[in-house]
Amino acid sequence: MKKNAIATLSGGFTLPEVIVAVAFFTILFGLVTINLLGSRKQIAQGANVDVAIADMKEQQSKAMAGEGTMLTDYSIFLASDKYVLFNGDTYNPNANTNFPVIIDPSVSITNITFPGSIIVFTKGSGEILNFSQGQNSFKLGAKIITINKFGVINIQ
Asked: Which residue in 40, 51, 90, 147 is deepest, having the highest Cβ count within 10 Å?
């Protein structure tokens, strides 16, 4: 009888085994959490770059084709936390036709080399107005976005 009682009691986990298992799962949870937080920033950056590129191409298309019967320059004003889509070649922050695009707070726009932080697509051709080599890029998160004279976008 005593033999069966001892066998029943020894079927559980010992305190050192439980401590090792808890420590293992704590370390595993920590590693997974750190990796997921890094992925979130990469995803946010990728999404912001994709949207910005699409908006630039749309502004260029509007400049080339016009909107309705109006053929005008279409432009983008770059700031650190947003960019603003507008028509014309002069940025007026109070214009009611401006379309601001707020970027993810974990990503910012830096190293803007465009004069006045404005990219202007010329009406009819879609080329960059007053293009100057070396003054045609900005950094969005970790990606450098360069635009050539003809409006072709390169991401590095």
From this structure: 147
